[in-house]
Structure formats: C-alpha cells, structure tokens
Amino acid sequence: MMTLTDRLATRPDAERIRLRLGTAFIENIDSLWPQGVPEDATPEFIRDNLDGIVAVLDQMVGRDANVRRLPRRLHWLLWLLDELEETAAFDG
Q: Taking Cα atoms as reference points, which of 89, 53, 88, 44 lies closest to residue 74?
C-alpha cells in the first residue's frame, strides 16, 4: 500500500495537493491537536512542517492495508484523501 507521502512524490500536481492539505490542516487544526493547539502551531508552522504531519497521518492511516483507523475527529481527512484520489484518477 502506497502512503500519501509516496503518492505525493509521484503526482505531477503534488504542489497543488500539498497546498490543499496545508489548507485543510489549518482549517481543522483543533482536530490535529485535541489536547490543545500548541502556541507555535501557526499556519506557517503547519506549512513548513507539512511533510512531518503527513508522515504521522500516514502511520495512522496505513497500519492495516484493509482498514483505515483514525479517530473520529480526523474522519475529514479520509474524505479529503478519497477526493484527492478521485482527482488523480480523473486527471490520469
């Protein structure tokens, strides 16, 4: 199973997808840090650390190739990933 990080590396529109992910992470910042958003978790921090955030989410999503396991607060990410995959299929 390819991770999101792997798929981003092969997509011709990777930069657009990275911008989309960064925007989604900023809009859903409270769900990324449910114990409270750290003071330094600014939009700039998220953009600068997007690869690290994606890597952590890859671990959460990819633990089982058949079942995506994420806390309910992160289900928006599954919908976004599905949408991005549909876009890739349509574009390709």
A: 53
The whole-angstrom separation of Cα 25 and Cα 15 is: 15
Residue 26's pLDDT is 93
**Confidence (pTM):** 0.76
Question: Long-range contacts for 59-65 (Cβ within 8 Å, ≥24 apart)?
Answer: 61/3, 61/4, 62/1, 62/3, 65/1
| CB 58 within 8 Å of CB 5 | yes
> Hey, where are the domains in the chain?
37-92
Tell me the pLDDT tens digit for each residue of 36-83. 888 989 999 999 999 998 888 888 776 555 445 667 777 788 778 788
Can you tell me the distance from the alpha carbon of 43 to that of 11, in angstroms, rounded to the nearest whole number?
24
